[in-house]
Protein 1
Amino acid sequence: ARIEIGPNSAATLELSDGTRVSLPAATKLQVRRLRTFARSGLTDTMIGIDRGGADSAVAPKGGGVGRYEISTPLMVTGVRGTRYRVSADDGGSRSEVIEGKVGVGAGARPGSATQVAAGYGVGVSTAGRLSKPTALLPAPVVAALPQPISSRAVTVRWQAVPGAAGYRAGVARDAALTEWVATTESASPEAVFDDLPDGDLFLAVSALSPQRLAGRNGVQPFKVWRNPPAPFSLMPAPDAVEHGGEVAFRWAAVQDASGYELALAADPEFSQRAETRRENGVEAVRTLAVGQWWWRLRSFDARNQPGPWGDTLKVTVQPAPPVPAPVDNGEELRVRWPADAGAAAATGYVLQMASDPAFSGDVVTFHTTESALSIPRPAPGTYFVRVARATGTDVPLASAFSAPQRIDLQSVLRDGQGAVIMTGGAKKGVQLGAQ
């Protein structure tokens, strides 16, 4: 059987004896032999890697194996129960031993294998020469991550390792690091992971030697909690100043959300004069005393389970002036979204607005370094907006954008004093739709 792992993908093979073979992105291999002896239960496994790598945890239950062999075009490895890695590329083949001992031979001669102990690695050059065992680089010290992570993208960092030519970072679902969901390489001690799944995850980072031997893993557990997403806030704007006791709040409607919670407090920790109320629509009005207030939003899914809170925003309430300040002056639309955890401010964001959810025509693109954008208020009608992290290109790929959210803008009328009157009911708002 032939197996090929695409880019931005990963797979794990589990054998009958519990052996797990984790395959990173861009790996191409052939399972040449896979059988189990009926009486003993021992396995006979031969895997050939043409390109990419494999991380093997062999016979973790301690029952032993008949044979477990991984080969590349330049190298053969054979074990009797251990944990090790194998990789192959245009520069040669490599094997790093994490636990136990591995026999490594150049070419197709496993009988002349060199025994490599835990904590060491070897390589085979394109000329077929087997290197001497080299001590693996130590595990990097990985910086703690915010808990939980609720943003789409997260930047991870670690301390530099002396002698490292680069780093390999990955995210796995299990502490044994056999179920990878994302892997990447970096020349500097940081990496960015995008669109990780919800749940308990494990970040693993290893240093790469100049010979591209991967060292021991530095591991940091963390939790991702993104769904249902917090709605985009529309008003009031961050650090807005409102006059009078009544403050109007508006936000986007998240697809399949059963409701929302709007939390208010007199301090950013939400410990003083805090109030949280459930809302079924996308608008709410609160009567607030003069002073500074902080507010945030979250969604509830169809099972009535809450998602993470969105960004904490501040609003200042001042005494009412002789003429009440308008809530919407009819000239500007402001859209805000949660900021990425740890993302560099220099990367910024890209917001697109279109008249259809497929963004097939009349698309307007905006660039901003903040997690909010004010634009001239469009004519009344239905619009769709989506946001992506800036990638250095003018417009990121469609897959990099969030799901579109719908904005219904009502007609704007003014009373005799110039104050804005916005037509439409309380259920008018923004609809988040997965496209």
Note: The first strand starts at residue 2 and ends at 4.
Protein 2
Amino acid sequence: GGGSLRRGVPTLRIGGQLVTTVFDLTLANYGVSREGLPGEWPQGYEDPLPYTPAWQAEITSSRLA
């Protein structure tokens, strides 16, 4: 089932506005953990969180190598 994950994204305040980069958003979306950021991150390929091989195998019925 669908759900949501909370993941930290590095930000800066520029001119009173909170900003980040598309790169940082993409890394968070794909579950690339980064030291010092809070959130739920995959611990390895066998972790069934989104975008890991285990997650993909569950959806596509493919085997993990």
Note: The two ends are 24 Å apart (CA to CA).
Protein 3
Amino acid sequence: MEIGDAVLKLCPDPSLLNDEETQALVDTNKDIFQRAFSGTTLSVALLDEEQDNLWVAGLSDLTIVLTFEDEDGLGEGKRLVMLHSTHMPKEYCGINMLHPSVEKDTIMKDDRLLGTLLPTRGLGDHPLKFKPIFSTKLFFKLPTETRTQCYLDNGETEVDKDPKDLVRSDPAIVVGKLLGSHIDDSYPQSTLEHSVKINWAGENRNRATELLGNLMAGTSMETFAKFLGPVEYGKWDEKLYFDDTTILVYDLTQQP
């Protein structure tokens, strides 16, 4: 059952409940309401067994990048999914068009949705998808400017891309090059303004950590240590942003 549908099945109209009934309902079904209250981003990529077709889907302020090596072993990359963020004009305008003009000063604050979120699409976050009464009656400690539905969307963006149609100016190419077997030293200097080291984590490396390390710090051990644990320095570096990321890989082909 869809996350939001589970809430609506329990309580299609919160206005019909008094405070005691609401509290009892939330306490009894805490997991359901917690999932609906919380939110997350998602990227999915599915490759067929012949490796001829690739299907991707993404929600929120993240993307999916197709990377490959050329005959010289240099990496290339192509962005496949657009970002769903308030920084994207199409998303910004789309959210504003859904709401009356009286909300024009509250929908976007500091370039964030209701002053709190950058993503305009995601899984969960149903206080920003349901009518405001769900926030005032069922969800607690939420942004106070929710008036009409809905501010956050969960619709995917579908695109049809030819992998050969490369746009070399796309930032996704940076990721592609960092995933190659080797790299021209001048490239990271001109794009990241620091040197990088390919395969620095060894044979059984964590590719995600290696990629993030090269993006954030490159060969600077001091910067990389700060990236891993800024609190050790006694202060938070506002230039660095940290988020929890989970990567799941499933092999859908039958193993011999």
Note: Residues 230-234 have pLDDT under 50 and may be disordered.
